[in-house]
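Title: Prediction job returns without error message
Component: structure pipeline
Severity: low
Priority: P3
Assignee: unassigned

Description:
Job completed but the reporter wants confirmation the result is attached to the right record. Sequence as submitted:
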Amino acid sequence: MSVPGADPRVLGPYLSQELADDRWLEPTVEVVAGGRSNLTYFVTSPAGSVVLRRPPLRAVRPTAHDMTREHRVLSALADTPVPVPRTLLLCTDPDVLGAPFYVMQRVDGVIARGELPPGYAGSAADRVAITTALVDVLAELHAVDPAAVGLADFGRPEGYLDRQLRRWAGEWQALRSGDLPAVDALAAELVARAPGSSGGPVVHGDYRLDNVVLDPADPGRVAAVLDWEMSTLGDPLADLGLLIVYWQQGRADDAAVVTRSVTGLPGFPTRAEVVQRYAERTGRDVAALPWYVAFGYFKLAVVVAGIVARLRAGAMADNSDEGLEAVIGPLAGAGRDALTRTAGDLG
């Protein structure tokens, strides 16, 4: 049976040759639910199960879907304290599946998207352990010396925030489909109040709880960090700010359709406690964090606009519409609210 973007009749012979194992000749391919940007597939055969990543079927903004960069950062971090899946191959020939792709190890475990599995991390102690592990892995990532792992040229830390603001504002102008003054106002405020950047380390670009795999037997251990498509060298507080955007606490707001998280369950630490743990673990000054949280909301609003555009273009394997366009404005409103707060009061 053909699978859009990863036809097993084509993929099987290719994997069989590249992995030197004929057991890959007739794999089954399954689109993994949850991915709305780069596409993720489970590929299974008698030889085992792996994960394939490729760009959307018809990428609206192709520069945002660079498989080579994603494969490179995963490979570079393999021997660091940051847990990542082991890469197996990179294909840059678009004639195989219509776009470059890479294949990596499948790491089994728990991905906590909208809820926790029954019986998993049911206690407050387990939920604190999840939080501690998540923050500590982020601290480990930001402690990696890029030059030591071959990533010295992976990005340009100098001027990182200025470039990010220009990039995301440009994306917004390219993707907007109507008049949304809240997004425009947030973009203007971010430019006017941008802090001095402290760029340098590897940043993930989309670090949040549902982009990691938790150990199924030990909630206090991150088994793997996934979805590195936005990684570069930059400002570490940008990662922390986005983590806070997705750290739901208390009542869900209008943007919860895209920021919904299990962290709203009883027993999970507050946003302030997450920030405190990161500050203690890294020694970094987090006073400017509200700006980074606001920037995280702005980026997410633009990402949602991009998803809406790809849905309209039929470029996603899952083309269901969950009312995403209606949350772009509320995301911008949450960003403007963050700008009025302090690092210890981001709830």
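Comment from assignee: result matches the submitted record. Residues 1 and 8 are 7 Å apart (CA to CA).
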